[in-house]
């Protein structure tokens, strides 16, 4: 008897929890296929009376969504590239060489992730304006790279530390130089770590809002998180079109999460707190 | 200096340079600006040193205290709820239980959705004739539609609910990481000694995951204090500025009112707040850096 009631409680929890987590997403998904009269319906209905696709067509016509998507994709890939390159160099230094001030550097990185963005946003705006990097992929990507660097360095350092040094030492005795060691021994071993960090950094960069809003205001270089808010005007919120645009923005992320669920989880779990 | 050492510094150089240019310099500049009077409208006159003038103004600024109280309240309430639910979730995910895979996939969805989009979704759901009101009405929890987005108390509640939805997954993953490091035989030994489940939780689980727990709470508290995206998307600070957070106030002081000196002082206050809170967690950070 006790066992059955336990199962019922768990099932109840399970349904309510999964429902609560998925509900907003599902509701937006259904709304994106609704006619205006279904959107306006009082009381609101969960499912469309008639499934239509025109909200998606409108989403691309009302705002240059293709440009926004392209901008976010280019900028995020640039961030991944720079973060991985700079981050793995730093992680290599922290894990493999006898330099001073390692802990101080790690603590500073930790402090960056605690920093409120408003403390740096105005000077960064001025700085990028002076060097003509406002409204460019590179300027915004540089700033976001700095914000993503703590995660990457922490994670990659931990990853480098799990690889026994003896492998490189024996290669070095055989006369391999550092570049060769890095390329032929370390890189293949940390490949999976780099992959996970890339995914986490990509999602982080794609989802950035405040810096994207302030630094890239021109339409030609506007990020999709900023662009998607522009469907809302003073007079009305076109929920059907906005829902369609939202779905377009999050579908790549959701597909990525579904496809790479195990690796993302292990990434977050290991990068999160393990020493 | 040995050759290896040189290579080490060389490898660290790009990261250090980036941090110098995009963190150190801006923070120093903001601190400098906070002691000056500088407005976009009178930019030609240059910055005028006014000592602690901006900070004195903050003490007398009612808008500041209003946003401060709300940001603080928001942080305490949402992080507490997230901690309790996140802990429950982490305990469930740490067991072999049917539906495990579905739970794990499900929690990654709110985590992956951009906060700005999540905020817009929730403001739709919380609309006057929105789905939340309809569900509450059908369930006989309310008798008339609630003014979620147009009255202070309800708007604040809505923001907290949306934040809990968005960030509990991350909290639960950080806690789960801690739970996975607790040796199972501790529980077996405790069970033999006759300790019940609740006793085991408070005597073994909590002390063992304390470092992970502290780090998770620190990160969430600091992130909640600087909340911007979610509120910008849901209410833009309304109704009548009652849900404006410190970040929103600072950003609009900078970029809408063009008051750089005062905006800088507000940002420095936020920075100091984040530092003070971090001090409470020094032990937790030490465990992360490794002794």
Explain the overall architecture.
The complex is a heterodimer of chains A (275) and B (291). Chain A folds into 2 domains: 2-56, no CATH class; 63-231, MetI-like (MetI-like fold), CATH 1.10.3720.10. The two termini of chain A are 43 Å apart. Chain A is mainly α and 275 residues long. Chain A has helices spanning 2-31, 36-39, 54-62, 65-96, 102-114, 118-130, 137-161, 166-173, 178-206, 210-215, 224-227, 239-259, 261-272. Helix content of chain A is 75%, strand content 0%. Chain B is mainly α and 291 residues long. Chain B has a single domain (33-40, 47-289), classed as MetI-like fold (Orthogonal Bundle), CATH 1.10.3720. Helix content of chain B is 74%, strand content 1%. Chain B has a two-stranded antiparallel ribbon. In chain B, helix 1 (3-34) crosses helix 12 (260-279) and helix 4 (100-112) crosses helix 7. Chain B is globular and about 75 Å long. The mean pLDDT of chain B is 90. Classes of the chains: A mainly alpha (275), B mainly alpha (291). Chains A and B meet through helix 1, helix 4, helix 5, helix 6 and helix 7 of A and helix 1, helix 4, helix 5, helix 6 and helix 7 of B.
